[in-house]
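REQUEST
  id: r-88c1
  op: predict_structure
  target: Glycine cleavage system H protein
  payload:
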Amino acid sequence: MSASFPGELLYTPDHEWLLKKSDTVVRIGITDFAQDQLGDVVFVQLPEDDAEVASGDSFAEVESTKSVSDIYAPLAGTVVAINGELDSSPDLINSDPYGEGWIVEIEAASPEDLEAALGELLDADAYKALTAEA
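RESPONSE
  id: r-88c1
  status: 200
  body:
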């Protein structure tokens, strides 16, 4: 299977994707490449709504038939939405990683904080190159 790399998203070296939802909020999930490497996702440990996360810290876990993988926060902020659908349908991460399989939305403290964090991330071409080396 060939992984997809939507151009409107930004990516982390840890295989998370980010979609900017507002001046301070991003939606986060794991990439098509990551879900393919994991295999069938059977459980997702989600953070609490309103949880504070620090950049680089693990805030969720994705468990598959092969392994358990931590999901790392690509920015500091507050969890403002969690995808509760993953409780009953963790396989959404496999079937629709960039859509219904999103994991959380995090709000940065300010638009400047969000822009600074996004400036550290990879565009689709850079992420595709990274995965080609894997």
